[in-house]
């Protein structure tokens, strides 16, 4: 019965993780959230960048975003090293954990399953952060190859296509970083599993609630949505609300 509860808790964790990932993507298609709002900001940023003659600030911003991913990727490697070390000292780790209050020591197999699950979470996070870093590197290259503001040979349509393409790459990088950051939240839920499977189930549910509230109902979202009008007509297109002379 105990092992069954452990497996049910693990299944609930993965259901929360994958279920919320799918839900948030579909929900973002018809409702404002942090992800799609920042997508609009990034695309607009690329349009503004094309109108600037000096793009040092844009390159600096991309560099800062890339360094954020590098920091978390490096942290993942350190955590993975610690988890692998803990797997090699399972007996000693279980003895130490048994002295903690409110903790129950499971069988060796369940203990190792908990560590392996935590390992999987941070491996996933590492791949997401490094992929985000690579795509921000792509954005840097695109900024370097962007048409100059006074380049009369580049048509407005070509500039708009470039802005959309660069914005899309930047959005993909941001989405990968977001998925990697979410993994840290889910890792905290796995930590609760070391105390009990019930705590694991509760923590997994709480993590999903926290992520949902921050993504779809946070004050930050309201501030971002009110900070800019995104329905402005695109360059080279007439405003559909304007009346003909």
TrEMBL record:
Q: Which domain of life is it from?
A: Bacteria
Q: Where are the transmembrane segments?
A: 70-90, 111-131, 184-212
Q: What is this protein called?
A: DUF599 domain-containing protein
**Organism name:** Marinobacter koreensis
Protein's UniProt keywords contain Transmembrane: yes
Q: Keywords on this record?
A: Membrane, Transmembrane, Transmembrane helix
Q: What InterPro entries does the record tag this protein with?
A: DUF599 (IPR006747)
**Can the keyword Cytoplasm be found in this entry's annotation?**
no
One Pfam entry name: DUF599
